[in-house]
């Protein structure tokens, strides 16, 4: 037991009336909603990187956090894991997520990094035995080290592809060993800085081949989790190939992988791509590739990825409504790929940021569930499209331009528009949030 | 001969030294570049809508232009056509483009609109006999009338789908009759205002079916041109389904139409979607769906579609370089989907805006061609990826994660990054523009 | 009594439990909050232009609304006024706002427009006698007619300045006659399309002189209301001079008018300028120029002014918190410069959009008032700056760089950063919304 | 002589025909333009921070550059200075710029940092004696160290204000000692992350007082250079107080400093604030506060500060045209606050990035000068506003709303709009670039 969180109590549900900062006001893991415990609906995960490995730097300044586990040794990496599991326990977090680079010290060679990873994975495995917290997903950091500066699977240098492939293998092995529910790929530097030096066709083909190898390896080792791609349009690269849900869908179709791979969708990345979060979720659900979410927002006035904890529950309710419409999470969950602000120096800040994020999500889920149960919104949607359920409409869809023109002329069709009722539906929505 | 352009001479090439406002300084249609006449490279088209049908309104104000042909009669529509062909002649424009709504008065019924269109198409056909100007593409306006307020192919009302299908048939017939080189679909209101009332799955399926009917009809009537979709991310709708090149590619793959349909890519729409124009062109070329371009820019400081004439030749050179790399236009061309500013009231403004646009494009093409001929940029690009041409790299691509890991360990692979040379390539570029 | 709103009942407060679409769930005008009736806090106003004069057009399509009062006669203008007051009554709206162009038909000459305005103002005055609804503000439309295409006070043509000055005089007279609480200037086309043809210095000086004349006339006629400028960064112009709060403050200082003029701040315009709404409010309050608000939001994914009714109460609570901190409205109020979507065709849509907007604001106000009453946020803010209340800090502020350096050296000052506690404050906030 | 730039020749002007990468094609320092040598017009400066102190990190990755001088000792700081002057010599750079943190190692205390700075300033002074390169401006880095995480002059902790004031004194002393032509303040973290913990009024007042102290100290020590503020709207902070030119103007007016302080305007920051660069320059000139420029662009598709070397000469020509209109630089100049891309690893990249930037600026200046000399644009501008030069217009400006209304009625004024001729002016522009 470290003393990092000394004095911070375990967080329990006390209800909306509580004014205790160290309590949940909305997240009540055992409360049953639409027939399922809240914990099973939300499947919260803490992100190792932002919570335990990020020093607080930004492009204009360095480290602000002093953490006793900062440094590059296996011993410090274990201390970091100790503290992480203490926080998981404080929060009652059902899941965590990690990159290799978050949990192990970088070695001088690939072999050394691999050994370091294996040792830490064993250590984490032992800790998990004494904890209720499971692994939502693992992933490989293929963007921080300078070797990845021009990409990983899409690097002009085949040796970087090789390094990356070998790294992903190790991270998939680690994820499987720790019982992970998913394996995620975020293409941090799979993109370009300038078209002038870039071969788009080759890079896409290499990325497609890389992903196929990942899928093959999953089947080979019998990993039962889901392979997930996390879209992001830009940053760090000027243009990133996994731009948004629609782009990744096209990529998966191009390489015949749309049945094998789903998406991990982040609110902040949706915003950067010019979409609302609920759009990306609804689209992925509609395309059959909705997997998991990173529930961290961007600031609407900043043009970069601020990765903040969610705090606006009506917005988040729109997201959970789409997830409920899609049937809820299967292997996926709600990861906080969120960092506390670099001025939030205290251990309390780290804990309470998660408390606020979990509460906001729980409140949003409950609102979404109420509306889902009520059914009015879906009834209104169905009514709007009811004309398409007629035999005439179905026949038209099976016909041709000429046949349709003949009917328009013969029947003197002249459609009169009907109200879209947007404000009334927004009012309906606001009855539930 | 109307007197609208009275006093405006035919525009001829006078070279860079000329200070005559009414002359081309760069566009010399007969100059041979990379083995082809400049006119055949660029294939300029004038857009009927912005040049002859737009009254100068914006969301905060109404008509600014007084044009003698404004009004809703067939007679005025013919006067408009007369003026249009006079301008084509003044500019030596090889092509024009139109929507049905630009050229014919709206009728009270579908049948009347159809008759009006047929009469005007005959009139334009006769004018084309005495003109060198051909039709680059035709299209249907499925967004201005209130019946389309909730979409055309994606409307909740099947009767609007019917009206739209019948309209497209008529416009395809007109395009074929006038010898059009392409037929374009821009999904102006194929999208949504709010997810709350929208059925994404049904709307996408109806859009897919609609496009299939268009392709079927093309083959049925033996239209030899290309079917083109024009992507745009938003405006007028909050979200438009044909968001960008990558999105439309995914849509085409989803419905098995990626061999049948290509893209008409607009600079302004690329910008709105968060991309550079050259990105969209390079991506479309890489995916085999580059068709034609709308060479009108948006203002970088405005968040809506300003549809301005191009005026920055180094930027445009990046675009033409991608087109040259892709082998140049086949059926496509350079359309100006550009409107003069609503304060540009005079006939001279309309003519000179086109002169400036054509000159900017010609200057850009010449710069791009010089660099293309020089070959240095392509040599640098090939060198950057040369490692992928080795047998070892090819073997790696055909192998698996495990085999690659074994090799990384065995050979102690440890890649050292190499400079991406972005600034040097930008300098190289600047030698040619 | 027209039949436009036939069947729509008067809207009454029924409380959160109500599922009646035609009821307020949060807005209870007589409920006392922080010692003042809710109606007096919020001072809601209906905007004549969007609600009664806008036909539903956008840059890609025309009229969608069929209103019996559309047309250019005095008779129709009176019918429009009748309907407007019927809606004010249905909503129990305490205020309305208008432009001259919303309420009177445009005449062929200035004199005729003036007579039309006077006749309609008399008509409205009579209606107000039988109504509880008052005038929050009047304003002049100096942007829709083509004469204003290059600006009003900043037009290159002195005759347009003259027309604009005369028009504002008439609108100020009308506002005074109708007992308006404020007079607003929004510089719709006071800006430029291109710097190439613009004389920034002259245009600013003319704008300053124009505003001085407005202030002089206010004093001359004894108008007791507040003169307000409404900032907006762009649209319709590429650049608008009244960009944001900070810009207008500089303009007022430049012309010595910062004591005479305050601001009417719109959420949508704040967003367009890259600010949060609460930023603009807090800044205006800090500068002593907070006057009134236009509580209509923009869509975060659209780059233009969507003027939607507010629907996210936690966001609006941030706004009302700043207003409460500033002491609440004096002459200002909450105007809905909001338009229903162009697909919202029905009279119910128009009424219910206002109901939803009013309810969202009331809910936000109540949350803000609870936090204000609680005081925790202000206590935390004061604690953060407590160091500045010490005599040493005050002495330092009165000293010089050299004296400070001497002290830093002498006392070996070495400041240790303290947590900014952002997430904890966001959690605190969320306890109240 | 270090060997860092071994093999890189001194860069000389060879003219447009040259294909030598290591030559200027446009920058010819001695060429006379509008009566002044090109070098004196442009006054190029190399930025110490990006060129010699930046390790290549970004928010998703660490150091990419290996530089022999990286490290925290005085010896390495001197090596860095040696290399810097070697590059100044290679480029023939007339100026450089620095922050304290770029040139000296950070000490454990203020006193130690001060001593380090003094030692390095002496060292640089000695190097300057043997060099033609002068100091364009010095500045203090008040944003990178964690002590500044909540601001410098606007920090809630008075001790940070003290540290900052003492630091600025030292940097002003250093700048004066090295003969600097200006002293710059960029408010890196003068702003906020969240309004919830921020006291806008107090922070502004402290910032105003801080600036007054800087001005007082300037006069006290007899510094003849200009005090410059560099505006930026955001990044690193969510909101930065020195948002843009208009905002800083208002701030200066508020504290009575508009005659004492001018602006250093950066293209990238203009873009982030929603303005074109030329807008910010023209506005500053119009307000009498145009001082100097940072000629580094942002990427139009990225929402953060990319600080790239300029490469689009027509855009830059718009900037230099405004500078020429304003009479050219006096103490100011053209600083490259630009960093090579993090993939540009080689010494050649660093040199050639500057060569490209200088050439782009020179080409732009020459184009702007040709248009300036030609005079057509200014003639067109004057003609557009000619009406304001009449006695009637001047009398109107001196009159009142009532007098104007009387005249509008009496003379039946009815202004007819005239073309703004935007496209024709853009064509004119394009004749010169
Ligand atoms: Co992110
Ligand atoms: Co993420
Ligand atoms: Co467009
Ligand atoms: Co277009
Ligand atoms: Co607005
Ligand atoms: Co407004
Ligand atoms: Co910058
Ligand atoms: Co700068």
Automatic annotation (TrEMBL), chains A, B, C, D:
Q: Which cofactor does it need?
A: Mg(2+)
Binding sites annotated in the UniProt record for Mg(2+) 1: 230, 266, 294, 337
Annotated cofactor note: Binds 2 magnesium ions per subunit.
Q: Report residues binding Mg(2+) 2.
A: 266, 269, 305, 307
Would the keyword Repressor be found if you checked this record's keyword annotation? no
According to its UniProt record, the EC number is 5.3.1.5
Write out the catalysed reaction.
Answer: alpha-D-xylose = alpha-D-xylulofuranose
* Keywords, ordered alphabetically: Carbohydrate metabolism, Cytoplasm, Isomerase, Magnesium, Metal-binding, Xylose metabolism
Q: What quaternary arrangement does the UniProt entry report?
A: Homotetramer.
* PANTHER family, A to Z: PTHR48408, XYLOSE ISOMERASE
What's the protein name?
A: Xylose isomerase
Q: Which gene encodes it?
A: xylA
